[in-house]
Task: inverse folding
């Protein structure tokens, strides 16, 4: 008669544990379908009838091993509703609308305007600089594009 190998005994023990875990998982799944708001503590008390090993686990360990896994599995089975599509807004064309302004170009244009005004010695020269005001404004607008 041949001796039983150690590996065979471990394999049988492992199979028994796996069947035990499957029984508990099925029990938990059935209970959660009946009462989805059941707490881990309640489920653990009921699962002790299925497997004594469940009683040795802390509530936290039990929750991680059984109810959490079952809830994840059940959540994957439920089809998710598609979120309502939001209409897309048209992208603004000007850089100024997007907040991308060439501040340095605007600053240089304004500094040039200030220098020209301060360099004007008389009323006629000041009026000539102010007459070119549209040119300065156009330069600022180009800097915002």
Result:
């Amino acid at each position: 008669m041949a001796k039983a190998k150690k590996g065979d005994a471990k394999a049988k023990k492992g199979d028994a544990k796996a069947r035990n875990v499957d029984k508990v998982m099925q029990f938990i799944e059935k209970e959660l379908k009946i009462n989805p708001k059941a707490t881990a503590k309640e489920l653990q008390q009921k699962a002790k009838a299925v497997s004594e090993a469940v009683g040795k686990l802390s509530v936290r360990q039990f929750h991680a091993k059984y109810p959490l896994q079952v809830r994840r599995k059940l959540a994957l089975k439920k089809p998710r509703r598609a979120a309502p599509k939001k209409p897309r807004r048209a992208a603004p064309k000007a850089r100024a609308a997007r907040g991308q302004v060439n501040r340095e170009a605007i600053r240089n244009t304004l500094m040039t305007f200030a220098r020209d005004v301060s360099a004007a010695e008389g009323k006629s020269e000041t009026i000539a600089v102010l007459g070119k005001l549209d040119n300065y404004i156009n330069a600022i607008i180009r800097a915002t594009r």
Observations:
- Residues 95-143 form one domain.
- The helical segments are 6-34, 40-47, 59-65, 67-77, 95-98, 103-119, 123-131, 133-143.
